[in-house]
Amino acid sequence: MFHMHSVAGRVFIGIGVGFIVGVAVMLSLPMFGFPLVSMFGFGTLLMFMLMGIVIGFMGLFNRHPLFNFRMPWWIRGLMVGFVFTLMYVLLSYGSLVVVMQSSLVSWMGLTSPFWALLDGICIGLLMSGLETKFAGEGPQLPIT
């Protein structure tokens, strides 16, 4: 897809994956009693797109700038996915309680909204893996 690795390519892939995941979540909201177009849905869409952008820009760092430990793609995706989803759960706790208590989810025994952290980690890993595979990583990446 990209012949030259770049930061712009990483960000483009992150926005694309975030958009696809966010739209999928928005389309599933009517099954949980939310309207298709709602602030909760748009917030979810924006959160996933911003998560892709941040993971894309974090691909410039092979080492942590402050603590100087190695950061492969899976550590970046795991950390950003966890932090973004934790923020999402804390800010939209009431809406996520409704989702988790619905019959579509509650039969699995997952009643706490904090189970969504696992989803965020998996999506962060997917974003980081795709960005690294198709657009490269490291401080030598060109901007465009």
Please explain how this structure is put together.
It is a single chain. Helix content is 65%, strand content 0%. The protein is elongated and about 50 Å long. The protein has 144 residues and is mainly α. The mean pLDDT is 91. It has one domain (7-135). It contains 6 helices and no strands. Helix 1 runs antiparallel to helix 2 (39-58), helix 2 packs antiparallel against helix 3 (73-91) and helix 2 crosses helix 6.
Structural class: mainly alpha
Order of helices and strands: HHHHHH
Number of helices: 6
How is the main sheet built? Answer: none
As a whole number of angstroms, the C-alpha radius of gyration is: 16 Å
What is the fold's blueprint, element by element?
Elements (H helix, E strand, L loop, with lengths): L6 H22 L10 H20 L14 H19 L1 H8 L2 H4 L9 H20 L9
Spell out the key features of this protein.
144 residues, mainly alpha, 6 helices, elongated
Quick rundown:
Helices cover 65% and strands 0% of the residues. It is mainly α and 144 residues long. The chain is elongated.
